[in-house]
Amino acid sequence: MEVLKEGLLKVDPGLLLWTIITFIVLLLILWKAAWKPIVEALDARAEKIRGDIESAEKSRLEAERLFAEHKAMMDKAKEEAASIIAEGKADAEKLKNSIVEKANQEAKDLIERARREINLAKDKALAEIQAEVVTISTDIAAKIISKNLKVEDQKALVEEALQKIRTVQ
To answer: What is the pLDDT of residue 16?
Structure first.
């Protein structure tokens, strides 16, 4: 116990009093000089953090609003693109139908023209055959009149006229 009476743990009332006074004076000086700026700095920092949080919240809300607008614009653009594609397909289908209809009409016209030309050629051929038959008949009649023919001669003339008709066809 001797250590307590003479050592570091010995309580000296005068030293204790001066230590308490020094502590209180130092506390008052710090209260007046340092406490106010520290508290103001902490308050300012807290206010800045609060402002930054509010600003971040506003920015987040603005970003969400812009995202929603962008999404709406993209949806609208997709709808317009789909509409344009559908309109293009409809126009292409109309054009295809028009071209097919025109080609069918031209084919019908071509077939009709070919039929008319065939009929004209047929009529012309028949007219030529008829003219040839008339000429041959006239020749036969002239020969018959110019000669008195026997039955065999008449048969030969008829055979000759038929042969000419066959060669014309």
So the answer is: 84
